[in-house]
């Protein structure tokens, strides 16, 4: 059999198709809104007179505002926001899980909106306020939502928890008293493999001043005597 | 729909050792402070990525090693093979200074493969397609002597563990030694395995796995990604970061193997099962073993069994690894659905049939509670409904053994009253850290706030891997022993100074008391220590006074709705009753049950690895198309901790995942009147089942032998 070209899974990457990251690398064009700022920041940028600003392939100076702290580093333009946070800013709350916005593990807030940081270029987040789970609260000074997550045991391994906390914080910011269906919808993009959703729902309800689902109505169902 | 709508917080009150304790690392996890193995990053580290075959079977035609090495930042290209036997099989690895360089290096390598014929399913094997074989031994006579025979074939898919933190490790060599930040279920297993690749003595290797992003049975071995990390770190002498990406995680880090099961059984009109032949085929990918299924489970009297008919069937895909209750959910699915089919044929309530065939007293009591909580009295007759939305109820069971292993727990009492619990074993999310802290606090008699737990490091006292659900049952007796030693030391000290009889002293909520008289606060008693004292509690793996008694048994009941126009199944509610001896900490224990149910429901409805039959490429190796249960799919779950007077900690991690898919499949059968004998219960399968006639009921008056083929 001849060497295969079109792989059924990735749409023929070797045959001229492009992976997402390769697309980033090849194009290296940022959104128009930030191009002007980047032009200033980027000593290596080749600027074409008649088109969008072209950055890369060489590393460029990148400026992020993470949890209120401005930070600068030099990275390839293809660097995703998730990579920048984890590998350049030592902000490891956002997790790399699927690397394609299918799981929500890397959720951060950009301009207050939850986004999958694996799908945004760091350059596109330049100077926009970025809030990660670390910026929502700390062990010493937790957000009520984080306290409720711990109280209701809304985690097991905890690897999805930073994304869950971030997504639900955004939910509560736009909807202070969400219903259970609204909570489910807001978390539809956040996968938890250990299976803690019911506890997450209760944590969010209680953090928003509502009773947890299924208030106690029955006693003594357990067959055994009291411990 | 369900009658009582109870809440588990009320049901479980008072059933555990520590009812209100909150997971000790809950806030660390909820604030991002918890640093997982994959979060150990350094700017100067080298990145490792395996070079993998993209087809079911292929030989390497060419690659350009020089071109890869010419890529700036690429430091090493190791080629150790020239053929692949499955999608994700590896032929070497690449090392680079950055993630980008790694990716450019792999592109420059430009591996070209010549694809070969491959097997992509167990159905490529004639043994699987063949009809069920002749029954042998006593089972043949028993089937012959029964009023009716029943034959059916069931199947379950390949399920991948899908831990959110992928497999791998970050290694930091340091002169003679090294620190290994591994994502593992076995701190000490990594220490055993990595040295040979790293070229360092085991005693100089420190394994750190304080926070682990899930394992579910797949993280006992360091894997190829770990071996490559070790070799690369040995060569460079510097830090190395080697973690699978999500695709690799689905392809080459194990799975729950598929099952095909053929059954033929003989039963009487009253549901008595006289005998059965059971043939099982495990789809083990390229592995030669590991595909076994636990059927019969032993929970039901199925008469004479001709059941030693298991064969592992190879095909071109990654091999299995232990996955949460290996072999059990697939076996339970077959056995429990089969029972419901028999019950339907005989016109018997499936719950009543189970009561007859299951002689466990504990489950006998659980059946009553499960039936009440789910609202079993509202269960419609199977096949009685029409209309687009139909409701169904199903029930299924589980049990688990009493495995145990040697474990040590150290307790350090500090002069300020702080108790430091030290255990090298890992917390993969079970709540092991909290359980150890709670046992020590409870046993000594001080608030949990006095306790911290150091966990997940090979420098700490040794303990078991998180497998077979033995970890908590083994460490709890060690923790109790350590707590008793620490308490007795402090009490002896108090007794001596105050001239009291130490046997009259106890500690109650942080106060040393003699009878009702308060003697001294715990903190003040500890202040008298000149220096911290350390005691070691040991459990040698043999039952002792701390082992206590208890067993892991469970019953789950599910309520579903089925949309008969789309074939979609909605799991509305699952009641999960589980004994685990003495539950240690209520909330994480409930979470274990809830998590088992969710994984089981996900297995029932969605999960299935799909291979391209033409090429053997895995078509759904990421979360956008390997569907797992999400927030919108999640049923109401009532986890019931069944204490029942038991005194020793027993297995809890694995048993709750066993019955869920079976209970859901039975509920779907009840709703639509036809069994769906293949997992997952996909809409197309539900619609196909609906196109079939409702299975016949056997007229109970009949005495002539009737062959009813299912």
Question: In words, what does this structure look like?
Answer:
The complex is a heterodimer of chains A (227) and B (710). Chain A has a 5-stranded mixed β-sheet, with helices on both faces. Chain A contains 8 helices and 5 strands; from the N terminus they run H-H-E-E-H-E-E-E-H-H-H-H-H. Chain A has 227 residues and is an alpha+beta fold. In chain A, helix 5 (144-151) crosses helix 8 (197-207). In chain A, a hairpin with a 2-residue loop joins strand 3 (107-110) and strand 4 (113-116). Chain A has 2 domains: 22-135, Ubiquitin-like (UB roll) (Roll), CATH 3.10.20.30; 138-207, DNA polymerase, domain 1 (Orthogonal Bundle). Chain B has 710 residues and is α/β, with parallel strands linked by helices. Chain B folds into 3 domains: 37-117 and 171-243, Aldehyde oxidase/xanthine dehydrogenase, a/b hammerhead (Aldehyde Oxidoreductase, domain 3, Alpha-Beta Complex), CATH 3.90.1170.50; 258-402 and 550-707, Aldehyde oxidase/xanthine dehydrogenase, molybdopterin binding domain (Aldehyde Oxidoreductase, domain 4), CATH 3.30.365; 407-539, Aldehyde Oxidoreductase, domain 4, CATH 3.30.365.10. Chain B is 28% helix and 24% strand. Chain B is built from 18 helices and 27 strands. Chain B has a 7-stranded mixed β-sheet with strand order 3-5-1-11-8-9-10, sandwiched between helices. In chain B, strands 7, 12, 13, 14, 15 and 27 form a 6-stranded mixed β-sheet that branches. In chain B, 62% of the residues are buried. At the A-B interface, helix 1, helix 3, helix 4, helix 5 and helix 6 of A face helix 1, helix 2, helix 4, strand 6 and helix 12 of B.
Average of pLDDT of chain B: 95
Strand content of chain B: 15-25%
Unreliably modeled segments of chain A: 1-5, 11-18, 22-48, 215-227
How many beta strands in the DSSP annotation of chain A?
5
- SS-derived structural category of chain B: alpha/beta
* Beta-strand share of residues of chain A: 5-15%
């Amino acid at each position: 059999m001849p060497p295969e070209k079109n792989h059924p899974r990735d749409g023929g990457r070797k045959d001229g198709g492009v992976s997402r990251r390769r697309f980033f690398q090849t194009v290296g064009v940022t959104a128009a809104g930030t191009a002007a700022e980047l032009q200033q920041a980027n000593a290596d940028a080749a600027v074409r007179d008649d088109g969008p600003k072209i950055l890369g392939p060489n590393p460029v100076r990148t400026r992020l505002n993470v949890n209120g702290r401005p930070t600068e580093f030099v990275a390839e333009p293809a660097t995703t926001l998730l990579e920048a946070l984890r590998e350049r800013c030592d902000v490891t709350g956002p997790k790399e899980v699927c690397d394609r916005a299918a799981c929500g593990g890397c959720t951060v807030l950009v301009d207050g909106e939850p986004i999958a940081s694996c799908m945004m270029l760091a350059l596109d987040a330049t100077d926009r306020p970025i809030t990660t789970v670390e910026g929502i609260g700390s062990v010493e000074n937790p957000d009520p939502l984080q306290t409720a997550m711990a109280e209701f045991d809304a985690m097991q391994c905890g690897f999805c928890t930073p994304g869950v906390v971030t997504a639900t914080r955004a939910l509560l910011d736009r909807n202070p008293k969400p219903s259970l269906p609204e909570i489910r919808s807001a978390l539809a993009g956040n996968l938890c493999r250990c299976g803690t959703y019911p506890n997450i729902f209760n944590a969010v309800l209680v953090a928003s001043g509502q009773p947890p689902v299924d208030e106690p109505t029955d006693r003594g169902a357990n067959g055994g005597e009291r411990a | 729909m369900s009658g009582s709508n109870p809440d588990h917080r009320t049901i479980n009150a008072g059933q555990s050792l520590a009812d209100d304790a909150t997971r000790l690392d809950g806030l660390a996890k909820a604030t991002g402070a918890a640093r997982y193995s994959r979060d150990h990053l350094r700017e100067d580290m080298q990145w490792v990525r395996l070079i993998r075959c993209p087809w079911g079977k292929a030989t390497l035609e060419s690659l350009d090693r020089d071109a890869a090495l010419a890529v700036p930042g690429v430091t090493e290209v190791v080629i150790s093979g020239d053929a692949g036997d499955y999608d994700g099989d590896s032929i070497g690895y690449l090392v680079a200074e950055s993630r980008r360089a790694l990716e450019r290096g792999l592109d420059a390598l430009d591996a070209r493969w010549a694809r070969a014929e491959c097997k992509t399913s167990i159905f490529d094997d004639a043994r699987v397609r063949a009809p069920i074989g002749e029954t042998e031994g006593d089972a043949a006579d028993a089937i012959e002597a029964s009023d009716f025979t029943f034959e059916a074939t069931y199947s379950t898919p390949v399920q991948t563990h899908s831990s959110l933190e992928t497999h791998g490790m970050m290694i930091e060599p340091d002169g003679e030694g090294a620190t290994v930040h591994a994502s593992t279920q076995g701190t000490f297993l990594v220490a055993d395995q990595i040295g040979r690749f790293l070229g360092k003595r085991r005693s100089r290797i420190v394994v750190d796995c304080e926070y682990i992003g899930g394992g579910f049975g797949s993280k006992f071995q360091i894997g190829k990604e770990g071996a490559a990390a070790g070799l690369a770190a040995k060569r460079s002498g510097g830090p190395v970061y080697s973690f699978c990406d999500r695709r690799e995680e689905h392809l080459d880090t194990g799975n729950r193997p598929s099952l095909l099961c053929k059954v033929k059984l003989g039963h009487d009109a009253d549901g008595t099962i006289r005998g059965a032949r059971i043939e099982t085929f495990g789809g083990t990918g390229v592995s030669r073993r590991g595909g076994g299924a636990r059927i019969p489970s032993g929970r039901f009297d199925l008469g004479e069994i001709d059941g030693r008919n298991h064969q592992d069937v190879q095909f071109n895909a990654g091999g299995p690894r232990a996955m949460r209750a290996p072999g059990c959910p697939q076996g339970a699915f077959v056995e429990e659905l089969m029972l419901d089919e028999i019950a339907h044929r005989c016109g018997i309530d499936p719950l009543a049939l189970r009561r007859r065939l299951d002689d466990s007293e504990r489950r006998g009591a659980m059946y009553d509670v499960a039936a009440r909580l789910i609202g079993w009295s509202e269960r419609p007759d199977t096949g009685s409904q029409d209309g687009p939305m139909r409701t169904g109820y199903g029930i299924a069971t589980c049990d688990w053994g009493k495995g145990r292993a040697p474990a040590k727990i150290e307790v350090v009492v500090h002069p300020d009253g702080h108790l430091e619990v030290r255990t090298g074993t890992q917390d993969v999310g079970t709540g092991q850290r909290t359980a150890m802290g709670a046992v020590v606090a409870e046993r000594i008699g001080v608030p949990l706030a006095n306790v911290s737990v150091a966990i997940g490091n090979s420098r700490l006292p040794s303990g078991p891997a998180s497998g077979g659900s033995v970890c908590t049952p083994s460490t709890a007796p060690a923790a109790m022993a350590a707590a008793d030693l620490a308490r007795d030391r402090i009490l002896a000290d108090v007794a001596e100074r105050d001239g009291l009889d130490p046997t009259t002293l106890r500690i109650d909520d942080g106060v040393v008391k003699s009878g009702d008289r308060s003697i001294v606060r715990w903190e003040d008693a500890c202040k008298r220590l000149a220096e911290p004292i350390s005691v070691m509690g040991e459990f040698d793996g043999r039952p002792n006074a701390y082992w206590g008694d208890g067993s892991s048994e469970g019953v789950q009941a599910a309520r579903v709705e089925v949309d008969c126009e789309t074939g979609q199944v909605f799991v509305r509610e699952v009641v999960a009753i589980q004994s685990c001896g003495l539950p240690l900490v209520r909330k994480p224990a409930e979470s274990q049950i809830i998590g088992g149910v969710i994984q089981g429901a996900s297995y029932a409805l969605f999960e299935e690895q799909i291979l391209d039959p033409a090429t053997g490429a895995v078509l759904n190796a990421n979360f956008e198309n390997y569907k797992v249960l999400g927030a919108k799919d999640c049923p109401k779950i009532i986890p019931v901790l069944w204490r029942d007077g038991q005194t020793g900690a027993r297995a809890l991690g694995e048993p709750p995942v066993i019955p869920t898919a079976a209970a859901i499949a039975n509920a779907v059968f009840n709703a639509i009147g036809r069994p769906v004998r293949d997992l997952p219960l996909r809409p197309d399968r539900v619609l196909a089942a609906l196109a079939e006639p409702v299975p016949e009921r056997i007229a109970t008056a009949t005495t002539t032998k009737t062959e009813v083929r299912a």
